[in-house]
Amino acid sequence: MWIYEKKLQYPVRVGKCDVRMARYLMEQYGGADGELAAALRYMNQRYAIPDKVIGVLTDISTEEFAHLEMIATMIYKLTKDASVQELEAAGLGPNYAQRDHALFYQNSAGVPWTASYIQAKGDPIADLYEDIAAEEKARATYQWLIDMTDDVDLQDGLKFLREREIIHAIRFKESVQILIDEKDKKRIF
Amino acid sequence: MNSQERVWTPYRGPFDPCPPVPFKTYVVPPNQFITFQPPNLPQFSLPEALKHGTLWPSLYSPYESKFKGVR
Amino acid sequence: MEANPCEPRYYEMLEQLQVLDFALVELNLYLDTHPQDVKAIEQFNQLTYERTKLANQFQELYGPLQNFGRAYSKAPWQWSESPWPWQV
């Protein structure tokens, strides 16, 4: 069961009308290392992982959905009032031709999201290392996005999201450590 | 320059067509030095924690935009 | 809705709630890998208390934060009223 909470995790502000950034932000919306991929990856891996780390996967996945909503908010605010000409100038002409101002799970180049972006190996160490790598890749993507804008308000939200990737990676690394340390525990069948 | 940043210089070939970049950088965030967070780390005030994206200063990684203008 | 969601108080209370809830997310993830840290659990419980109090005040003024029976509604049905999080 999930309960939706009618508020953002972080106060997202966009300081200037820059439709160009909306397109690039889609990398974190429906891209390979984006928030949707992260949320779905962890939420699915949790069914075949030792109980000790199910909580971490469930909670980080849930937080990723809050981040997905923050990215959607940024894209929404940047495109809501944009004219067809402005969208075209920002490279979003093909998007307008398909769906007007609607958002879609696709990356910055317009490639639709695919489940091939995520993995479930069923081996807890392999899966957690994939998750750590995913967090570092998302951190890097946030850096490149921050580099592409001088809007300090937009940068502010992106910096928050970048830091969250760093924290998530620590929690996944700790999860690996917890599984390594199982060696000294008694086996009870 | 912040202490989490590392610098490297890409190889310059004799036939490179463009003016060479002087150096490139990458970030080594604090999570690379912690395998397991110790208890009782000092905390930010709660409003500061939200602004920084973490409750713990020692896990905070600053990043500044390299933006130099569009096109 | 009694109070106007565009007034400064709405944004102030919302941010106070975001501040408390963020600390709770951080402590929750930390406790997932540090289940024995009693001091962190105490802080978590204390902030949960403060959060519940503030969320109740906020909901009294601006309508429910959660649906499906997690908050009371006045008439007409408040849940589906604007603004939604991405609109504010």
Topology, pairings included?
The complex is a heterotrimer of chains A (189), B (71) and C (88).
Chain A: H1 19-30, H2 35-45, H3 54-79, H4 84-89, H5 93-99, H6 124-147, H7 152-180
Helix pairs in contact in A: 1-3, 1-6, 2-3, 2-6, 3-7, 6-7
Chain B: E1 5-8, E2 24-27, H1 46-52
Chain C: H1 8-33, H2 38-62
Question: What attributes characterize this protein structure?
Answer:
heterotrimer, B: 71 residues, little secondary structure, two-stranded antiparallel sheet, elongated, C: 88 residues, mainly alpha, Spore_coat_CotJA (chain B), Spore coat associated protein CotJA (chain B), capsid protein (chain C)
Query: Uncertain runs of chain C with pLDDT below 50, 5 residues or more?
Result: none
Distance between the termini of chain C: 15 Å
Question: Which radius of gyration of chain A do the C-alpha atoms yield?
Answer: 18 Å
Q: Biggest sheet of chain A, open or closed, and with what strands and sense?
A: none
The total of helices of chain C stands at: 2
Give me the secondary-structure category of chain C: mainly alpha
- How many structural units, i.e. domains of chain C? 1
Organism (chain A): Paenibacillus tritici
Pfam family, one (chain A): Mn_catalase
InterPro entries (chain A): Ferritin-like, Ferritin-like_SF, Mn_catalase, Mn_catalase_dom
Family (chain A): Belongs to the manganese catalase family.
